Amino acid sequence: MPKPSALPRPRTLAVAAVIVPVFLAGLFTAFSGKYSQAQDPKKFQLGFGGALLGNLATYGLSNFYGLEYAVLKANALSGVMGQQVEIVTEDDSCNPAMASAAATKLISSGLKIIMGHSCSGATRSALSVYGNNVLLISSSATETSLTESGQYPYFFRTTPRDDVQVKLQLALIKKKGFKKIAILHDKGDHGQTVAELTRDLIKAQGQNGPELVIYEGLTAGQISFDAIISKIKDAQAEAVVWCGYYNDAAKLVTQMRQKRVTTAMIGFDGLYDPRYVNIAQQAAEGTYCTGQVDYSRNQAAKEALADHQKRHSEDVGSYFFYAIGAAQALFAALDKTNNPEDFAGIKKHLNEDTVETVIGPVRFDTKGDVIGAGFKVFLIQQGRYTEVAL
Fold it and tell me: Is the pTM above the cut of 0.90?
């Protein structure tokens, strides 16, 4: 993906919340209109569930933009299974309860193939509704258990898993020599899960690893972080591992620096987003985070980015290329089975066939995880994300 620092300046969240409904109305006109049971046999309707509104819409829109591009490319040729593709969307705002409602709407409309959801907690909630009645492919849901549990054999993803990120972060902590670590999470499904993974891996190091001096959940959206900053200072923590999204992390690091607390900030891919730097400004300097591989030098990726920039003023976000790759692999499998209800056949092709995509060759293992994709560690310097060698 393009390094976030290279992307156009994002609009503020307040502005985005106002313009999104108008933007979506235009997309509905371009693609789908209202879904009905009496489907046009010349059209294939594909579901999309994700955050299109709210503070975390950046994730859903990034996924949607990628899907949009893949659909435009497919429709310009022969479509999918010889049909033009239409996208049917439902917003979940990265909220598990809303994701259940969105999933219910999509599945009750008769949709069998769905792209999404954006956030891990929302994806888990949606899967509990879909069960094995839908084939779902996500570009950004990283929670390890979504595939590791084996509960949902028809769930696939092009993003790597959280356990990969945790191992990278522990390698970073070791490389930097941090001895006292604070782990903070936002009490959300995803944040708490990666916090537990990180805690358990640190504890497994025993005396050879760092000391965990703070492990605490904070309320997402809170205004003041004074209390936890005092604890960080008193515990002499050398690094804070933030398990959550960029909006709260930006407030936390800003208040830390205002109080002259220089403890290093480390985060997951939720901080690999230009909005983190945009909100935290100078306070973001020196933050480490895990993030997606940079695909922007790939010629196919360059073409996708150029096409997007002609049609939209919004940046592509963190998962644009992963979403294109997911759609391209899915469309190839659908073309071979020629039956959107043949989940076993589609799964067989996703597992066995290697498809050339915008993110390179894509194939999935038997659990549904993409083969070959990975994360990198980045350091924010002068407002830019610079890859760190471990």
Answer: no
